[in-house]
Amino acid sequence: MALRPAGENTGILFVRTDVNSATVRARAQNVSDTTLSTSIAENGVQVATVEHLLSALWGVGIDNLVVELSSEEVPIMDGSAAPFIYLINSVGIVEQNAAKEFIRIKREIRVTQGDAIASLKPYDGFKADYTFVADHPIYNRYPKRATLDFSKVSYVEEVSRARSFGLAKELEQAQSINKCMGSSLENAVGIDDYSILNEDGLRYEDEFVKHKLLDVIGDLYLLGRPVLGRFHGYMSGHALNNKLAQALLRCEDAWEVTTLGVKQLEGREPIMQPVAG
Length: 277
Description:
Blueprint: E1 2-5, E2 12-16, E3 22-25, E4 31-33, E5 39-42, E6 45-47, H1 51-60, E7 65-69, H2 82-91, E8 101-105, E9 109-113, E10 116-121, E11 126-131, E12 145-149, H3 155-158, E13 165-167, H4 171-176, E14 189-191, H5 207-220, E15 227-234, H6 238-250, E16 255-259, H7 262-265
Parallel strand pairs: 2-7, 8-15, 11-15, 13-14
Antiparallel strand pairs: 1-7, 2-3, 4-5, 5-6, 8-16, 9-10, 10-15, 11-12
């Protein structure tokens, strides 16, 4: 994978160098598969597992980027967004001349699937809460709900290091449908019936639920702009996150595109950490 600068108003564009440099735009409408991860496709060309990279790009405020891939799947790295952020910050970010655009939520949009819920409401900034529901001896030891207001906390510090996780006994089933083929304790938190298998344990006490929030942020960034609003999730996964994004796009009276210039930001808390990039 290579990340390359892009001009103003390009958005996030994936380029498959192994398929005649075919392009796939990072758009909610292009989501092609949500089984255990989020994949996008355009004109028959697919890019898999985009959510961690997109979450990282949201976290450092990158709006325009070309992502070149020599195969279908975005590298999993350590199962979190942190390695992407480290590499991006090591080369730096250029602030462009165009005003940064946001999607401001004007009224509530809510979708459900069984007991699972995902919604967006108006809010001055971006706030997200998520409730992780899973009855297992290990999951039951740790917090299952997290609420973060990103005008007050840093995504990089509080969310970006949360890794993918799963039960070891479920890995064979996932691999039978060609998912998680490269899973190991180097890129996920492994859990057996009574313990966490990773030698160093968890990075956050609430790492499980924070990874769910990391995924939410990546899935919502497929809207093409950061959201100004409040997200609420209960048991939601990639499929419901995308259902919410697409429902929002269909309800044009529920949102508007807005810009926040430097002068408007003076004297107030940032929308997220950092605001511009």
